[in-house]
Amino acid sequence: MAEHLGPLELVGDRWIIGDPKREGGSWLVLTAEGMTHHEPGSPEPLTVLPWSKFVELQIHTAYNAWHTTRTMGVLGFGRSLPTGPSSCSVRGTLRHPYEHCSMNYTHHKRPYTASHVYAVEALFRRTSEARALHRLGDPEWLGAAVARLAPLSPWRAHSRNHPVREIFEDLGI
After folding, report:
1. What count of other Cβ atoms lies within 10 Å of the Cβ of residue 16?
2. I need a surface site. Which of 29, 42, 59, 164 has the fewest CB within 10 A?
3. What is the DSSP letter of 77?
4. What per-residue confidence (pLDDT) applies to 86?
5. Whole-angstrom Cα distance, residue 86 to residue 84?
6. 3-state secondary structure (DSSP) of residue 71
7. What is the pLDDT at residue 30?
8. C-alpha distances in angstroms, 29 versus 98, 126, 148, 159?
9. Nearest residue to 18 via CA among 74, 59, 51
10. Run of H or E residues at 163
11. Helices 139-149 and 114-129, packing angle to 10 deg
12. 41, 52 contact by CB (below 8 A)
C-alpha cells in the first residue's frame, strides 16, 4: 500500500496532512470524528473540527517546500503556481454559523509530484462534492484511495480526470 499522496501521509495508523517532524511545523490529523490541527509543543490540538461541521473542504499544496516561503509569496509566479505561506493549507466552509476556515500545514522536505498534487486535490474535491468528508477519517477507505491514486502517472492523472473519476466510483463516491 502507498504510504503517501503528496502532503497526505500514513504515520503509524493515522493519516496526517503535513510533516509533524519538521521543526516549527504544523500538521492536520484525519480521525473518524473529524480533523485536528496540531503544532509542536502543544499537548492539545489547536483546532478540533467534526466532519459534520464542514459544508465543503479543499486542500491546497505547493510542489516544493521553498514555494511556501514568504519571499515566494511576494514574488509569486502568477496564479498557476501556489506560493507563499498559505500555499499549503486546508480550507473550507463551516456551518452554524457559516464561516471560512483555513489551517496551514508544513510541507515535507520531499517535493510533491504533479500527479500527487492533482490526485490529493481531486480526492478532497470529490469527497466534498459527494458530502462524504467523513470517509477521509476512515483509515482503511483512505488507504485504499491512496493506493489507487498514488501510482497514477501525471499523464493518466490529468487526462480529462477519467482515471481519477473511475477510482472514485469504485470507492463509492
Report:
1. 20
2. 42
3. B
4. 56
5. 6
6. helix
7. 97
8. 23, 19, 21, 31
9. 59
10. helix 162-170
11. 140
12. no
pLDDT along the chain (173 residues), means of 10: 90 93 90 94 90 94 58 46 64 92 89 88 92 95 93 64 75 82
* DSSP secondary structure string for all residues of 112-155: PPHHHHHHHHHHHHHHHHTT-GGGGG-HHHHHHHHHHHTT--HH
- Give every CB contact of residue 153 below 8 A, 6+ residues apart in sequence: 115
Q: What single letter denotes the amino acid at residue 94? A: L
**Total Cβ atoms within 10 A of residue 15:** 23
* pLDDT reported for residue 170: 84
* DSSP track, 9-58: EEETTEEEES-TTSTT--EEEE-SSEEEEE-TT-SS-SEEEEGGGEEEEE
Specify the DSSP element, H or E, that contains 91. Answer: strand 89-94
**18 and 109 Cβ atoms separated by less than 8 Å:** no
Which of the 8 DSSP states describes residue 106?
P
pLDDT at 14: 94
Separation CA 86–CA 59 (nearest Å): 11
Cell of 130: 459527494
